[in-house]
Amino acid sequence: MRSKIKLWLEILRVSGKLGLLSFGGPTAHLGYFHNEYVKRRKWLDEAGYAELVALCQFLPGPASSQVGIGIGIVRGGLLGGLLSFLGFTLPSVVLLVLFEWLLSGTDVSRAGWLQGLQLAAVAVVAHAIWGMGQKLTPDRTRMTIAAVAAGAVLLWQTAYSQVAVILLAGLVGLWLYRKTGALSGPSPDSVSVIGSGAASPYRIGRGAAIASLSIFAALLLLLPWLRDWDPLLAMADSFYRTGSLVFGGGHVVLPLLEREAVGAGWISEQQFLAGYGAAQAVPGPLFTFASYIGAASNGLIGAIVATASIFLPAFLLVVGTLPFWQLLRRSPAAQGILTGVNAAVVGLLLAALYDPIWKHAVVSTADFVAALVLFILLVFWKLPPWLVVLAGAAAGIVIELAA
Questions:
Q1: Which Pfam families did the record assign (predicted)?
Q2: In this structure, is residue 309 part of a structural domain?
Q3: Tell me, what DSSP letter sits at residue 280?
Q4: Could you tell me if 357 and 125 are in contact, meaning their C-beta atoms sit under 8 angstroms apart?
Q5: Mean pLDDT along residues 167-176
Q6: Residue of 50 and 295 predicted with greater confidence
């Protein structure tokens, strides 16, 4: 037992260090994980890590957090997965909750540096679209799916529009791309089980996996029926549903969270965009933006409920799919669905760039110039996002003083 406790504490310590230092978004996180877990500590081999990354890219939710959870499970069982998640996530949660508490005493409608954070959000989301569009919409068919998805969610603004668009895009992808082959990654014969080897003694049984998937589906169906009982249940439903339906990485969470949080009146548009800008400046997963929203609407208990709700689907899905990944990755139908969904994700992000980000952040010529400069610094000068966010805040102050 003592050796297990030592192992679990090591998982918490290593993931906590990564949570404090992992700037740069999901792709950068995966690089940090590879260096720490594969190259340095050899908790997984190269093939096992590639399999785990492929699985988490297939699932909805925060891919880098799911990879961290999977590594924790492989290393230390279910508790190891939970500790790995906590270590990687809590630093970002604490920083964003503290930011919200500091923000609560200011007039967000007049602070120049907060306007600058909104301009930084323009640059960051545009950069995400730039990169994702090149990868996920490389041909005219997928670009068309993205454009139709963007138009649909802008013209049909309801609580169900994003979900409907994702489902329809999956069906279109199944129809158009079901014969394109298996998912990318190591060949099916190269790895029999994720994390195989002496350094990875833990396995998830199929019974536990089925139970996890059952809990995931039950919560997805029951929480909408329970949300009217209590405001915290309403928050749990909104964030759980968001965490269950977001494909494509952290930035894609923006339109769903904006619809849920601002649409429900939990926070204002200015608070939302200021928090999103701040989320770019802290390490760790972007999904912790939910912690900021929860704190802004219901204090510390709101932050806890929002954080737990948005990340719970990620944990349940990783546990539920690890034993079945080989079957999924060999399925052309699964790849076709994912191809269509990924194209629609680019469209959803494009729509979010216009509304709410662009419409509320770029209100003058100076704002446009600042956003353009920030975008160039991010895309072509390769500055890290946190530095671009600080530059945006400084630009907002300059614009305010010059007005």
A1: Chromate_transp
A2: yes
A3: T
A4: yes
A5: 92
A6: 295
Domain membership flag for residue 115? yes
Please check whether residue 293 is in contact with residue 266, taking contact to mean a CB–CB distance below 8 angstroms: yes
Q: State the first-to-last Cα distance of the chain, in angstroms, to the nearest integer.
A: 65
Contact 297, 266 (CB under 8 A): yes
Using a pLDDT cut of 70, give the percent of the chain over it.
88
Global pTM value:
0.73
For residue 267, tell me if it sits in a domain: yes
Percent of the chain exceeding pLDDT 90 equals: 40
Chain centre to alpha carbon of residue 85: 14
**Which pair of tokens denotes residue 150?**
């963007």
Judge contact between 287 and 279, C-beta under 8 A. no
Domain that holds residue 157: 89-184+215-402
User: What is the rounded radius of gyration, in angstroms, for the C-alpha atoms of the chain?
Assistant: 21
Please give the tally of structural domains in the chain: 1
**Span of 176-190, 272-286, 291-305, 333-347 with lowest mean pLDDT:** 176-190
DSSP annotation of 138 reads -
Give the burial class of 172: count Cβ atoms within 10 A of its Cβ; 0-12 exposed, 13-18 middle, 19 or more buried: buried
Buried b (16+ CB within 10 A) or exposed e, 12-33: bebbbebbbebbebbeebbebb
Nearest to 235 by CA among 161, 295, 316, 276: 295
The dihedral built from the CA positions of residue 381, 96, 263 and 250, taken in this order, carries a sign that is positive
What is the spatial distance between Cα 362 and Cα 368, in angstroms, rounded to a whole number?
6
User: For 28-83, what is each residue's pLDDT tens digit?
Assistant: 688 788 888 988 898 988 777 877 876 787 788 888 899 999 999 989 899 999 99
